[in-house]
Amino acid sequence: MHEIGITQGIIDRAREAAVQNGAERITEVHIVITPVADFTEDALQMFFTMLTEDDDLFRDAVLHADHRPVAATCQECGDEFSVEAPGPTCPKCGSFNVRLDPEAPMVQLTDVIIDEG
Ligand SMILES: [Zn+2]
Asked: How many helices (H) and strands (E) does the chain have?
């Protein structure tokens, strides 16, 4: 259930950006999800709606999620490739023993579209 904490983190950062820019309302929140995330976009969408429904700043705000691949290395044959979905297998040898880029974020706030009223 840590998706709710992650969603709250996105909301908090979006709010901070909006307040700094004198926003009356947030219309769109853009995020990027990578395969490092152990949750689905649907979960984030659900919590986003749940956590913002009584929040005037986020009234009718839409959460846009883009998916970005991450670099991965096969621990069996050393092949390096790009992974677009969770639970990858090595394209060369078929191993499940694949290490995703440890630096890659699960989810990142990329843009906040505001209405200045
Ligand atoms: Zn391999």
From this structure: 2, 6
pLDDT digits (tens, 9 = 90+) for 96-115: 999 999 999 999 999 999 99
Asked if the structure places residue 92 within a domain, the reply is no
Domain that holds residue 64: 3-68+103-115
Kindly list the distances between the CA atom of residue 25 and the CA atoms of 10, 53, 116, in Å, as whole numbers in the listed order: 16, 13, 7
Q: How far is the CA of 87 from the centre of ligand 1 (A)?
A: 14
Q: What is the CATH number of the domain that holds 27?
A: 3.30.2320.50
Residue at 91 is within a domain: no
Residue 38 pLDDT class (50, 70, 90 cuts): confident
What is the Å distance from ligand 1's center to 96 Cα?
Answer: 8
The pTM score is 0.86
Separation of 70 CA from ligand 1 center, angstroms?
Answer: 16
